[in-house]
Amino acid sequence: MIFRQLFDEATWTYTYLIASGKGREAVIIDPVIEHTDMYLTLIDQLGIRLVRAMDTHVHADHITALGALREKTQCITNLGEQTDAECVSETFKDGDVIDVDGIKIKTLHTPGHTNDSYSFVMADRVFTGDTLLIRGSGRTDFQAGDPGDSWDSITGKLFALPDETLVYPGHDYKGWTVSTIGEEKQFNPRLAGKSREEYIEIMNNLNLPDPKLMDIAVPANLKCGRS
Fold first, then answer.
1. pLDDT tens across 15-63, in order?
2. Boundaries of domain holding 194
3. Percentage helix, strand, coil for the chain under 3-state DSSP, each rounded to 5
């Protein structure tokens, strides 16, 4: 399998490129528009063909490359069915299985950070977007976020995966690149040993500033990053 974890330093965003092998079809998860040319160069160098570009949710901190990649490669673009973005080629719903040339990706609706947040599950790993971060979790104070939904998504769906499942988040702010479900159950300070009520109290009192690009990114991402 070809697997690449790519990083946008400006917004601390991880993007993931996956294919079953050279000469095969590929999928990209949470691409950032400023890196479109880099993605296309890498795809060419690896000898793969992009057929799907998927976002875990409508982002507020960066502009997606879904629209740009579709224009350049004619790939299918995807968001969850709860999205307000009408620009995507297709939407998916909870429990769908997307097959990209033999790589099967199950979609899990994991609201809380936003109401349209999804996680993507493969055989040995999960891409958690902003729902579950390494030793943290995504804020729940905008875009129809809800701390109770976040708790339910993490503990009821993500923590139901095997402990050895690799966790690849949508962002990291401390230098972590990968974790496991078992690690997050044991060591995530917002979740380990906490009750649902305690988690809601934590999330309701984070008092974080809005993302710098929020007023630009959300409207742009509702158009798949295209003006």
1. 999 999 999 999 999 999 999 999 999 999 999 999 999 999 999 989 9
2. 2-207
3. 25, 30, 45
